[in-house]
């Protein structure tokens, strides 16, 4: 069965690994990108998820090529780390606007087609940081914790319509987002991870694909940690 899948931020990092996992399984995969040359093998649509008009245009393009989105992975996200004392209002609101309100924009637009089809799978990419907190990441943690309440509310609201909403909470994953950390920060992190290493993006992608598969048909409102044991189930 070839489904219409959308992965936001599917042009690199975890999103690209997720897009590849669905494409390898035979799905029709659309990805969003903001600039540069997107990777080949997908329907790449230019879209900044902080702009509702760009989200609308992206969906129109995807629907014309692949039909209604049946599986949505809200993956796009940013960090703007700063201690609270130095965190500006813009540092806070811009991270919320991308990570939480951006997810709202893409989920809301996908919901239209899913309601009509009477089925749908939504997976939101949160973070272990949203559950445990992290000094210097109050904005990011708030946005990622917000995704949990968002998904669980929608799981209740739309369960009867056969649409599932689940959250994946990765630990530290080897991508551009974490490559900017110093060697000292990286080894501090690894020392707290029971499995003693970073995740590869493909390890997050495998869980996302499972949540969108028939094998996960009775799972909704769940938060699945993929964090090497860092959060111990939280
Ligand atoms: N890496 C980790 O350790 C880790 C751990 C837990 C959770 N996560 C979460 O996993 C997701 C992917 O992270 P990553 O590590 O793959 O990060 P990444 O390599 O920095 O990639 C971020 C992705 O998000 C996209 N993006 C950012 N802002 C956007 C916007 N306004 N509109 C559309 N796309 C936007 C980027 O697109 P451009 O290429 O256009 O910038 C890029 O595709 C994020 O939500 C992140 O918070 C990551």
TrEMBL record:
Q: Which domain of life is it from?
A: Bacteria
Any one GO MF annotation of this record: NAD binding
- Which reaction is recorded as catalysed by this protein? a (3R)-hydroxyacyl-[ACP] + NADP(+) = a 3-oxoacyl-[ACP] + NADPH + H(+)
**Keywords on this record?**
Fatty acid biosynthesis, Fatty acid metabolism, Lipid biosynthesis, Lipid metabolism, NADP, Oxidoreductase
Domain called Ketoreductase: residue spans: 3-176
Tell me one Pfam family matched here. adh_short_C2
Q: In which pathway does it act?
A: Lipid metabolism; fatty acid biosynthesis
Task: Enumerate the SMART domains for this protein.
Answer: PKS_KR
Q: Which SUPFAM superfamilies match?
A: NAD(P)-binding Rossmann-fold domains
Write the Enzyme Commission number(s) for this entry.
1.1.1.100
Q: Which residues bind NADP(+)?
A: 9-12, 75, 140-144
Transmembrane segment boundaries? none
Would you kindly state one Gene Ontology biological process term found in this protein's UniProt entry?
Answer: fatty acid biosynthetic process
Residues annotated as catalytic: 140
Family in the record: Belongs to the short-chain dehydrogenases/reductases (SDR) family.
Annotated NCBIfam families = 3oxo_ACP_reduc (TIGR01830), PRK12826.1-2 (NF009466)
Subunit structure as annotated in this protein's UniProt entry: Homotetramer.
What this chain does, per the entry, is described as: Catalyzes the NADPH-dependent reduction of beta-ketoacyl-ACP substrates to beta-hydroxyacyl-ACP products, the first reductive step in the elongation cycle of fatty acid biosynthesis.
Identification of the protein by name:
3-oxoacyl-[acyl-carrier-protein] reductase
């Amino acid at each position: 069965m070839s489904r219409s899948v959308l992965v936001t931020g599917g042009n690199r990092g975890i999103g690209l690994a997720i897009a590849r996992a669905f494409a390898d399984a035979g799905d029709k995969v659309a990805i969003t990108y903001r600039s540069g040359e997107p990777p080949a093998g997908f329907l790449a649509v230019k879209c900044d998820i902080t702009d509702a008009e760009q989200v609308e245009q992206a969906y129109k393009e995807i629907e014309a090529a692949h039909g209604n989105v049946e599986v949505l992975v809200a993956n796009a996200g940013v960090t703007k780390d700063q201690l609270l004392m130095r965190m500006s209002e813009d540092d806070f609101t811009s991270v919320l606007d991308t990570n939480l309100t951006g997810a709202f924009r893409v989920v809301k637009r996908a919901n239209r087609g899913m309601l009509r089809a009477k089925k749908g799978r939504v997976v939101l990419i949160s973070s272990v940081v949203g559950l445990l907190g992290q000094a210097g990441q109050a904005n990011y943690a708030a946005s990622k914790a917000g995704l949990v309440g968002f998904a669980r509310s929608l799981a209740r609201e739309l369960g009867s319509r056969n649409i599932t909403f689940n959250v994946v909470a990765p630990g530290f994953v080897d991508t551009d987002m974490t490559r900017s950390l110093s060697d000292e920060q990286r080894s501090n992190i690894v020392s707290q991870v029971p499995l003693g290493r970073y995740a590869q993006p493909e390890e997050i992608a495998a869980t996302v694909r499972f949540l969108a598969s028939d094998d996960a048909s009775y799972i909704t409102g769940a938060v699945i940690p993929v964090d090497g044991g860092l959060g111990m189930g939280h």
